[in-house]
Amino acid sequence: MTKPYVFITRKLPEDVVAPLLAIAEVEMWPHEDVAVPRDVLVEKTKRATAILPMVSDPIDEGVLSAGSALKVVANMGVGYDNIDVPAATQRGIVVCNTPDVLTDTTADLTFALLLATARRLVEAADFLKEGKWKSWSPFLLAGADVHHKTIGIVGMGNIGQAVAKRAKGFDMNVLYHNRSRRPEAEEKLGAVYRPFFDLLAESDFVVCLTPLTPETRHLFNREAFRQMKPTAIFINAARGAVVDEQALYEALVRGEIAAAGLDVFEKEPVAADHPLVSLPNVVALPHIGSATYETRRAMMTLARDNIIAVLEGRSPLTPVNQPS
Question: How far is CA 238 from CA 81, 129, 253, in A?
Fold first, then answer.
């Protein structure tokens, strides 16, 4: 009997892939840092029973329609806006993601980005490396305090609540905005719900952790940034397209907000001459929110186990949809 065929869009460690080899023929794109070309992805999908893509791989109608035998798309990421889920559901294809295993790691990075932006850490490190430090002065590279300030979290899911927990350790006042109220966060973390524009107006730090949906695309636009304090710092560790990047650039250049820390961009990867990356009051990172060895291996393992479950006729561990 012919084994099912699984295509993985990046090179993963052999020990992670090994359990799949017992039940499937597995092929991996042989590069860790180079995206699989679309034509190759489509060609491999034609014979695939399962694919394991990265969050940066577009699994759209064109890819899904090529997979006549495709049963499962196991995304390596908690977000799945790179996948046309309705199209997959219509075709009876299960879509899975990797929630929970990256919550604390992404919250750590989000708060680190907030601290780095507030205290101008990257700018200060470059200042020293470039030989510019000639003397001590009272306001040399002075940044902003984080403790006792107000943080406004937009998107109070698991990662948002983990960030709120870290903020409480800095004695911060926690506000949040979410599609629905989070009573558990209000009770355990003292988080206070605010309408979106009220949160923007009151917060010293605005942290975006909302998923990308048609409703949240360009949620942070020109009008939103104009609601914020001129001393406010904006952090985005969610998805780049939640932000109108031109509006953010203008807000930073005009001094409508003080600074921004960005782990994500609308079109990734970005070049060093990207307008936002070039600004001195922006700390920009290459989408490393979940990038620790422990967490990335846990994500790979969960994606793999979702595929194994489907191939063995069991329910996947973390399905996004429920095709009939």
Answer: 11, 31, 23
